[in-house]
Write a structure and sequence with these properties.
Layout (H helix, E strand, L loop, with lengths): L2 H25 L4 H4 L8 H18 L15 H4 L7 H13 L16 H7 L53 E2 L5 H4 L7 H14 L16 H7 L3 E2 L1
Parallel strand pairs: 1-2
Length: 237
């Protein structure tokens, strides 16, 4: 090897030694190892996330103790998943429904997708409603007196017949009638619905379960397409 080749070789060795020293020094400084390409990362954050997921799954899998009840307005999604026959999707739908409008009765659970009247009866021994919470902005919660907000009752103090939709009022908004909560007397506030027809609606509700759409009223004797269109603006489910 001539003199020029030896000098090139010595220069290359010096560069390699310098580069190795820099990498070694960087790896031993705080946080340096994680910054080097290809260096192993500290698994702390990933381990914490995995532990949280495992803890949530453990809560979901824990069966209810004898006599244990849950408040569907306050229980977490993981707790609701513990109810018999309620899976993750239905638990999530229950939380969404109660966030939109808190449940004022167990029958209100049917607002959640996948929950019907039979499911409510099956879950009833495992549920206990506490005071209805006031949602932000006062939507659907309990007023200051503590009574759950609900539809106006026929004959209530300060409630006129026009406000209940007994007669048409020019320019007035239709007052909602919650057909799954209303009594037969309340239902007579609907235009064209008398005591006999109101009784049939209540009987159909008790026999077949809650109505979900206006069309569910059509099997009731006396409710035809014309009457349904007349009362449709007043109906709430």
């Amino acid at each position: 090897m001539d003199a020029q080749g030896r000098r090139a070789f010595v220069h290359l060795v010096a560069v390699l030694l310098l580069t190795g020293g820099v990498r070694l020094a960087w790896a031993h400084r705080p946080g340096g190892a994680a910054a080097l390409p290809g260096a192993a990362r500290v698994p702390g954050a990933s381990a914490d996330s995995s532990a949280r997921v495992a803890e949530a799954e453990a809560r979901r899998a824990r069966p209810l103790a004898p006599g244990e009840t849950l408040d569907p307005n306050r229980a977490s999604e993981e707790e609701l998943d513990r109810l018999p026959g309620v899976g993750p999707r239905t638990a999530r739908d229950l939380v969404r429904a109660r966030d939109t409008l808190p449940f004022s009765s167990l029958e209100d659970l049917t607002r959640a997708r996948g929950i019907g009247a039979r499911t409510v009866e099956r879950l009833r021994p495992h549920l206990a409603l506490g005071p209805v919470p006031v949602s932000p902005g006062g939507r659907g919660g309990a007023p200051a007196g503590g009574r759950p907000a609900g539809p106006p009752r026929a004959g209530a103090a300060g409630t006129s017949g026009a406000a209940l939709g007994v007669g048409p009022v020019a320019g007035a908004e239709p007052t909602p009638i919650w057909v799954n909560r209303a009594s037969a007397q309340d239902l007579t506030a609907l235009p064209g619905v008398g005591p006999v027809l109101a009784g049939r609606i209540v009987a159909q509700r008790e026999q077949a379960g809650h109505f979900r759409t206006p069309e569910d009223l059509l099997p009731v004797k006396g409710v035809g397409p014309a009457l349904l269109e007349r009362i449709r603006p007043h109906l709430r489910f």
